[in-house]
Amino acid sequence: MIESTIAFIGGGNMARSLIGGLLADGCPAGQIRVADPDLAQIQALQRQYGIETSLDNKQVLAGAQAVLLAVKPQVMKPVLKEIAGAIRAQRPLIVSIAAGVRERDISAWVSASDLPIVRAMPNTPALVQSGATGLYANSAVDDAQRALAESILRAVGLTVWVDREELIDTVTGLSGSGPAYFFLLMEAMEDAAHALGLPREAARLLTLQTAFGAAKLALESEEGVAELRKRVTSPGGTTERAIQAFESGGLRTLVGDAVRAAKARSAELADTFGGAA
User: Is the pTM of this model over 0.70?
Assistant: First the structure.
């Protein structure tokens, strides 16, 4: 169970999902604080979770061992500059879930080069406690702080550490943007089945359950996905014919191009957000 006090700066959807996950994992409500400029937002969080909330970022920071930055990337700089003094005085673990904001820019905006910082790239299934998060820690993060950061993000799903910050851009291209790739495939499958005569609702339900079942089977199997695919692809059968259509259409190349495009855009955005550091 997490025993540290965690201050959330920003109370949007991802913060809400993390708070819900932490409470479900047994973290006491008294150890979670949230600041957000939206009064209605923090009032709703207080009612739903019984946690401390404030309009004042500095107020929730006081005494916190971890600060989770859950604000939009484009407002990260002014937010950090406002709380820079408190951060330097306290030296909490900083966990940023803002896409495209590099560790060096966070350090620059708080005017400190040796703060423990973890960058996290969760994805939207975290909203239903089924997320996938990539984590990167700078050299100032100790083992206990790594464990704390992992515990926070693991409250909403699976976590994987990477040892180089630039790999967070790859994580963004894979799992950060990845849910949309699967939604697109599911959308196409549903449309194809409907065009071939299935009622829309039947096509939708069969598509969704097939996607869920395939993912669950892959997660619970000791075999890799390539082997699982081979096992359901009988020679001369219907699945083999469909796979041949995918392969002849260049699916692998297209997917590779998509992940690389998202990765490149993640790096571009980091350059944009950090350009005025």
Answer: yes
